[in-house]
Structures are given as structure tokens and as C-alpha cells.
């Protein structure tokens, strides 16, 4: 049965929202800690789905190259073998630029990519960290065609055309963590289309944690088919459309997040897409509407530390986005 509560009046004040008894074993491996609301040290390896399937190490063990021009960047992205690519300064690129397997694309302080995006297409073991993406003409980062083990961490996205981070077409084992998105509409899509189930069912397993969706509109994320998709410890602030949408029989666990001034935290079904399943638990809501929930979600297979949702605003605003870590 679907619980539908669309466009309800905002809830005044802070409250802890939990689902009404429809939760299953998706909490496996979680433990709640009670630290002060301080920013933790940057992870040296991903948690969540990118830690599975052998883990995600990017270009570790390969040589390092520093790039500051479009031609140098695009050539390095296409190079075969393990490589650590350090991005320096502002680089303007056009179109979608292929990233091959076993790459770490790491921004030096202030690193910015404008105009175009990065296309992880049929590639495995890729890390993208500490870069500001601005004004992209298609997607900022596109992960597609059965790419596996991708970690997208501590980046900032603003003022682009389509998705900030889109993951689709049978891709799997990805973690999207500690990113900030602001002044943007379509944020994070998971799953290409309603008709792509033959490629996507059994894949599209992604973790989204400690991201700051800052005044953005929709797709935080918008999910098709993936199960379980794990959305935890994110800060949603003033999102004018909706927070998380589940469709096409996906299973999404939404836990430990902080929703502030979000009229519609979750949608079950979106547009013409059929309903998915969504479990909503241990989230904090401030001046926000009630969630839509439905059904159950597969168990989370990895261990993770869940920050108390009341602390998430301070933790995430202090640590999310580019130039908050040294890589």
C-alpha cells in the first residue's frame, strides 16, 4: 500500500519523523553514534556501495600528472592504465569527455571545470574529488553503460544545464558523498528511463551520503529500479520541488537526513513513472512536509556509521563541497 501525503502544509518546528512500522532489515550494519556536530576528517576510501565489489581505489599505484589546460586534461582522462590526475586552476572544456578505468581525478585547491563534463562510460574504478563544476552544457558527471566502483566525493556543482551527477544504464557500486549542489535544477538522476529495466534491474546500487542540496529543485536523487539505494545523512535545504523520488519498483532507504523548508521530502512515483518503494526513518524535519512512503527495501550489506539526524545540518554545511579537504 502506498502512503500519499503530497502538498501537505509545512510542519512548524523541529520534529523527528519516522515511518509507520513498514521498515525491514535495511538497518543491517548501521550503528548510531552521538558525536558533537563537527566535521569528520575526510575519508581516504569510500563507504557505502563503492566499498563493495572489491572496493574503489582509482588511480592509486599509478603515476601522477598535473593538468591545467583542456587538452592536457582530456588526454589524461583517456590514457590507459592507473593514473592520478591533479586538476589545477580553471579549465574550460566542451562536450562530454571520456574517463577511462583506474583513474583518480583530484582537484588542487580552487580547481574548477566549466563548460563541459566528465563521462564515465563503461569504465571501472574511478574517483572524482575536490573539483568545482560550473556551467556545464550537458551533465557535469555522467556514469553509464555498466560502469562499476565509482566514488564522487567533495565536489561543488552549480549553474549547469542537466544533471550534476547522473548514474544510469546498468552502472553499479557507486558512492556519491560530501558534495554541495546549489543554484541548479536537475541534480542527481539514478536510472535512464522507465523502459531500461532489462539493463538496470539488479544494478544501480548507489549510496548518497553527507551531500548538501542547497536550494536546488529536484532529483536528490530520482531513482529507478535500484534496490537498495541508500540515502543517508544528507542536508536538504529549501528544495522547491521534492527531495527523493522512488519509481519503477526501486527500493530506497532514506535515513538520518535533515530536511529544512522542504514541502515534499519524498515522492513515491514521479511524473509518468510507476511507484517504487521507500522506507523513511530517523530523519529530522524542520518546517517541512510529511514524506510519502511505500513497502520495504532490501537489506544494506555494508557497515556504516550513521550520524544523528539532528547534527547533520552542522556536519554537512561544515564539510560538504570542494576545497573542504586536501587530497
What's the alpha carbon Rg, rounded to whole Å?
18 Å
What gap, in angstroms, lies between the N and C termini?
46 Å
Number of DSSP strand runs: 32
The CATH class turns out to be: Mainly Beta
Q: Given the helix and strand composition, which structural class is it?
A: mainly beta
What report would you give on this structure?
InterPro entries: PbH1 (IPR006626), Pec_lyase (IPR002022), Pectin_lyas_fold (IPR012334), Pectin_lyase_fold/virulence (IPR011050), PEL (IPR045032). One of its GO terms (biological process) is polysaccharide catabolic process. The protein has about 325 residues and is mainly β. The protein has a single domain (about 50-320), classed as Single-stranded right-handed beta-helix, Pectin lyase-like (Pectate Lyase C-like, 3 Solenoid), CATH 2.160.20. The chain has helices spanning about 70-80, 195-200, 310-320; strands at about 1-5, 15, 30, 65, 85, 90, 95-100, 105, 110-115, 115-120, 125-130, 130-135, 140-145, 150-155, 155-160, 165, 170-175, 180, 190, 205-210, 210-215, 220-225, 230, 235, 245, 250-255, 260, 265-270, 275-280, 285, 295, 305. It has a 10-stranded mixed sheet with strand order 2-30-27-24-21-18-15-12-9-6, covered by helices on one side. Strand 4 (about 65), helix 1 (about 70-80) and strand 5 (about 85) form a beta-alpha-beta unit.
Amino acid at each position: 500500500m502506498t502512503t500519499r501525503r503530497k502538498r501537505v502544509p509545512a510542519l512548524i518546528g523541529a520534529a523527528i519523523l519516522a515511518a509507520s512500522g513498514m521498515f525491514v532489515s535495511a538497518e543491517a550494519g548501521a550503528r548510531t553514534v552521538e558525536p558533537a556536530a563537527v566535521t569528520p576528517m575526510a575519508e581516504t576510501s569510500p563507504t557505502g556501495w563503492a566499498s563493495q565489489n572489491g572496493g574503489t581505489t582509482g588511480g592509486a599505484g599509478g603515476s601522477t600528472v598535473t593538468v591545467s589546460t583542456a587538452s592536457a586534461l582530456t588526454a589524461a582522462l583517456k590514457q590507459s592504465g592507473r593514473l592520478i590526475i591533479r586538476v589545477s586552476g580553471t579549465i574550460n572544456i566542451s562536450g562530454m569527455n571520456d574517463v577511462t578505468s583506474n583513474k583518480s581525478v583530484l582537484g588542487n585547491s580552487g580547481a574548477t571545470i566549466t563548460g563541459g563534463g566528465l563521462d564515465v562510460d563503461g569504465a571501472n574504478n574511478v574517483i572524482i574529488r575536490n573539483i568545482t563544476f560550473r556551467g556545464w552544457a550537458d551533465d557535469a558527471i555522467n556514469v553509464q553503460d555498466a560502469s562499476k566502483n565509482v566514488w564522487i566525493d567533495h565536489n561543488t556543482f552549480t549553474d549547469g544545464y542537466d544533471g550534476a551527477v547522473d548514474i544510469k544504464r546498468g552502472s553499479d557500486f557507486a558512492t556519491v558523498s560530501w558534495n554541495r549542489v546549489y543554484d541548479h535544477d536537475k541534480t542527481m538522476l539514478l536510472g535512464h528511463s522507465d523502459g531500461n529495466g532489462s539493463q538496470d534491474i539488479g544494478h544501480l546500487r548507489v549510496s548518497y551520503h553527507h551531500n548538501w542540496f542547497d536550494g536546488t529543485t529536484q532529483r536528490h536523487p530520482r531513482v529507478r529500479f535500484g534496490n537498495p539505494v541508500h540515502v543517508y545523512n544528507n542536508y536538504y535545504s529549501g528544495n522547491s520541488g521534492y527531495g527523493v523520488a522512488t519509481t519503477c519498483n526501486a527500493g530506497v532507504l532514506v535515513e538520518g537526513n535533515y530536511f529544512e523548508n522542504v514541502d515534499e521530502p519524498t515522492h513515491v512515483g514521479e511524473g509518468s513513472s510507476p511507484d517504487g518503494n521507500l522506507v523513511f526513518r530517523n530523519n529530522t524535519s524542520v518546517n517541512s512536509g510529511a514524506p510519502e512512503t511505500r513497502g520495504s527495501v532490501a537489506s544494506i550489506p555494508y557497515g556504516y556509521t550513521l550520524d544523528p539526524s539532528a547534527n547533520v545540518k552542522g556536519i554537512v554545511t561544515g564539510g560538504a563541497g570542494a576545497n573542504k579537504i586536501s587530497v
